[in-house]
Amino acid sequence: MKIDGTLDEAYERLHRTGPEFEGWLTNHGPMAVESMVRRGHARQVHRWLDLYMSRLDDRPRGTSPITAAEWRTALGDPHRLGDWLAFFAREVTEQPWRAVLETWWPRLLPGIAAGATHGVIRTGHAVHALLDHEDGPRLAELGQALGYWAARWQRVPSATPSGTADPASALAGVPRVPDQTAGINHRLDQLTDLTDWPVALAALRPAADAGQARDLLADLTTAAAVHYLPNAHGSPVMLVHAATAPMAVLRTLPALPSTQWVMSLHAAWAAGAAVTAAYTPAAPAPRHALPTAHQSAEETFALAVRHQDEHVIKLADTCLDVHRRTGRPDALTAVIRAIELIDEP
Is Oxidoreductase one of the keywords (predicted)? Predict the structure, then answer.
């Protein structure tokens, strides 16, 4: 099978930049271009990057190497971002990448909120690319993704699923944080004092084995994508991540031992529920105010690429997988809703 070199070329361009820019904004370039290439839009990648990369900052330099003895103290320290990038650049070249992932996945999962969930999302895209083809630029991308996740590692309050609710019902029962006037850290901080939060998390039906964990995770991704359609006006950009974070975990499962799948479900559920609690509006939009999608899946993704916003592209990538699995037209309509609400770059 011939491998299109566009993704590797894009990674090489992007790896001169950092995972963040303008303070705390996430570099979405690697995630968007992986989606575009995989969905048959490689010809648009470099033109899209020419515009997007003008916003990015240079890759940060390390100051003090992270060692095996002290990694715990450096976890979640954004001032060590350059050190973490250097650490994982070594890890993925000195060991098989699956071994690195198996070691670090359970260490990083509890901090799945890292970078507003972009640490795990970027990792999921990198793993997806490596499962298709393994080479230097893709290994380097996994190292960058894991380094970003480690530097921004951030917990959300969690509870083990023990109820009877399916993912859609459990997501519908997630309470809103009371103050939705500031950024994501302020919103997530409120979860600790939200009395209904542990009850809502525990309501999800538990997985008896790895296969059930995979199926529940797929259903959770579907529920979050469908939830976006009537609720996107709460925050059309941030609510995207309630679906794309669980999808990133789902796509990573084939590279992980099955013994890590249940814990992956638990972390993805906590992350998706946290974003839902933080950004769901007080009331959904009335049905008559929502768009109707008449496009095919391929046409829907082409519209997302034409729109150019990185969040729209990422959501479209997730929603196309949901549509392929379930046939639900509202997964595609969610993309049209995002195009309506998110300004073009």
Answer: yes
